[in-house]
User: Fold this.
Amino acid sequence: MRVIYNIVILQIKSLLFILKFFNSKIRSFVEERKKVLKILEKTISKTDNYIWIHVASLGEYEQGLPIFKEIKSLYKNHKIVLSFFSSSGYQVRKNNPIADITVYLPLDTSKNSRKFVSLINPKMVFFVKYEFWPNYLQNLKKNSIPTFLLAGLFRENHWFFRWYGSGFLNLLKSSVTHFFVQNKDSIDLLINNNITNCTLMGDSRFDRVNTLLDQNNNIENIKEFIGNRICFVGGSTWKEDESLMIDYINKNNNNLVWIIAPHQINLKHITDFQKKIKRKSILHSNLNQNNITTTKVLIIDSIGILTKLYSYSDISYVGGGMGNSGLHNILEPAIFKNPILIGKNYINFPEARDLISKNGAISVKDSKEFENILNELIENKRKRSIMGGNNFDYIKSNLGATKNVISYLKERK
Assistant:
């Protein structure tokens, strides 16, 4: 199985080399990774002890952040190397409060993984959620390096639980020191496959969003822009989500102010979106004291402020659910006691199912349903308050994942 995997990885590497000449994102993906080993050769000190933390992208980084902070505090005499797989995650968090060194993860070839592990020589390693790279795991195992999975999620249809994935399942068993998983289904699945070195930690995203209450959520001119109007925040929206809002905005002119943060922050998308809105709209980069009170729709054209925007919201919509791109983080507005609207495709997101069942979130299937439900929430302040309170209580009742992991590490230290 490993031979086949390595052949596939080398084929992917060759394909990426060709495609980089035709696609700027792929070119960046390839070129940036070529630099990583040289960067490590220059920055890694043989006299220091290192902990390696790897995340796929921004979502996994945010999910693990409360744990990373505690690990940094617990192992004060260690430096941290943080690696990202995705370009988007790396670009947003290449400067972060956790890591001493932040890099891309090189492709999982035998040569790359052997060199990467050898250079860092980590005293322990943490992977988050789904990151299973066979060659990296093999080299960590070969060097007897303690390796932990944080916030793991396992499903019966994962390929390594099938007959043809038995080799990789055995690698997981032998290379991962301990599995910290999010739910009981994952625990049961591991135990049924003779993996008993596992702990139910819960979901550290709850711990992460809980810290948003303590951050500085002030954004210049936003409070003045809202004034005494009801504030609707649409977060991480895609075209399918935005079509609901465009229909409503153009049809209704009530006491509602709109703040919309598209998932795709590029000029063409934002320009096309803005042209479809008949009410007065403005980009956040152009917002100032002179146009605050006369504007109906504010479109966010920067990244990194969405969680702060939710703190101003009376009603929130979380994007991704009207299409097939995947629902974005519904927990972020929940901690600010927001009633939440989402699209129709949410079944694979347990927290969305939970909040719907607890009457904190509502799924809409089309523009008409969106209009009816939004009108009801605008008119019924008590309903907004009840829904928001349900969401807040849900977050608070699920805290503690970070504590569960750190307690284990303290006992092991």
Summary: The chain has 19 helices and 14 strands.
